[in-house]
Amino acid sequence: MHESVTTDRLAQELAQRERELDAVYKVTRALLNPIEIDELLREALVTTMETLEADAGSLLLHDSEQRKLVFHHVEGPARDTITGMAIADTQGIAGEVFQCGEPRINLDVTKDPAHILDVDEAARYTTRTMITVPLHTGAHDPIGVMQLLNKHTGEFDDDDLAVAQVIASQVSAAIVNTRLHEQARAAVLVDMLGQITHDIKNLLTPVSMAGQTLRVMLDDLQSQVADEMAQPLHSSEERLARLAEMTQRVFGDVSEIFAILDESTTIAQQRAKEIADAVRGFTAPVSFELLNVSDIIAGVVRVLELVASQHKVTLRHEAGEVPRCLLDGHRMYNAIYNLTNNAIGATPEGGSVTLTTGCESGETPGEQFLRISVVDTGVGMPPDIAAILFSGKVRSTKPGGTGLGTRVVRNVVEAHEGQLSVESREGVGTTITIRIPLRQS
C-alpha cells in the first residue's frame, strides 16, 4: 500500500514536471519565432497560467517617466477592465516586488497589508492567492512584474514559483531584446535620413543656380528689349529681326535650364519619398538592372554642368567602351553625383573635373571590372585624410559639412560588391576610382 502511494505521488510529480517543461518549451519556441512582442507576451502569460492552473494573470510594465506600473497584458475575467490601468511603482504587492526584486507567494492576500483592494473592486474580482515575480534585465534593472492569481486546485507552491521565475526571465529577455532592436533600428533610420537629406541638399544646388541663372538671363533680355524699343524706328522688319535674334539666344539656354530643373527636382522627389518610406519602416532593396553607366554619368554631367560653370570649372565626360552591366541606377547616380559635386567644390577657378569610364582586369584570371573615375585638378588632400576617406572615420572640414557624402558613396559601392580607391596630391588634384565587378554574386 505504501509503495502504491509513493508511486502515485511520483507519477503526479513527474506529470507536473512535464507540464512545467512543456510551458518553458512553448515560451522558448515563441521567442524564436518572428512574432510581435505583444503577441509573445500574451502567449507567455497564457502558457504560464495554464501550467500553474491560475484563474487570471497580468504583466505590469514600468513607465519610468510616470514612475508607474501599467497593466500591459491581462488575462482572465477582469481583462477588459484592468488592461491599461496604472498604479504607482511603490504601490501594492506588485510595487514592493518591483522595488525589491524578490518574488513572492501570497497564499492569502488579505493578510498582506500591501494588497490593493481598489484594483479588485474596479475589476469586480476577488483575489485570494497570488504569485508575483519581477521582470528585470540582465543587470537586474527592474522593468516590471508578472502576477498569477487564484490557483484552481490547491495552493501555489515553490515549484509553481520556480516555473513562473523561469518564464519571467524569458519574458524579460524578449522585452529587452525588442527594445535593443528598436534602438538599433532607430539609429539606422537616423543614419539613413541623414544620408538622404544630404543628397537632397546637394541636388538642390543646381536647382538654385539654375533659378539664379534664369533670372539673370531674363533680366538681361528685358534690358536689351527695352534698349531696342528705345532706338529710332528704322523698319518693323529690322526691329523684329533683332528681337527674334535676342530671344532665340535666350530661349535655347532656357530650354537647357528647364531640363536641369526637371531632372534635379525629379531625383529630389525620389529621395524625399525615401524619407517617407524610411519613417514608415520600409527600405527599398537594391534593384539591379542591365544599364550602361555612361548614360548615368551623362545625366550627372547634364545637371552639374551649370554648377561647374558657376565655379568656372570645366566638367567633362570621357566615355570609354564599356558593356552594359548590373547596376542599381538610382544608387549609382547618387554615388557619382556626390563624387562629382565634391570634386567641383574642391577645384579652383580654371580647373577641371573629368569623369572617365573603362574596363580593366583584376588579379584573378578572367576577373573583369567596370572602372569609373572622377579626376579633378583641385586642392588635393593630405595622405592621412586620403587613407581614411571612405572608412567611416573621416569628418568633413567644409563649413556645414557632415561627412555623409563619402558614406553614401561607400554604401553604394559595397552594395555592388565593388572597390574604392583614392589617389591625391596636395596642390595637384585627386582621382577617386570605383571598380564594379562585371560578374557579381
Question: How would you sum up this structure, described in words?
Answer:
With 441 residues, the chain is an alpha+beta fold. It folds into 3 domains: 183 residues, 2-Layer Sandwich (Beta-Lactamase); 94 residues; 157 residues, 2-Layer Sandwich (Heat Shock Protein 90), CATH 3.30.565.10. The chain contains 11 helices and 13 strands. The chain is elongated, with a radius of gyration of 35 Å.
Task: Give the helix/strand layout.
Layout: H1 2-32, H2 37-52, E1 54-63, E2 68-75, H3 79-82, E3 86-88, H4 92-100, E4 104-106, H5 117-123, E5 130-136, E6 142-151, H6 158-230, H7 236-279, E7 289-291, H8 293-310, E8 314-318, E9 325-327, H9 329-345, E10 352-361, E11 368-376, H10 383-388, H11 404-415, E12 419-425, E13 429-437
Parallel strand pairs: 8-10
Antiparallel strand pairs: 1-2, 1-6, 2-3, 4-5, 5-6, 7-9, 10-11, 11-13, 12-13
Give structural attributes.
441 residues, alpha+beta, Beta-Lactamase, Heat Shock Protein 90, 3 domains, six-stranded antiparallel sheet, 11 helices, 13 strands, 20% strand, elongated
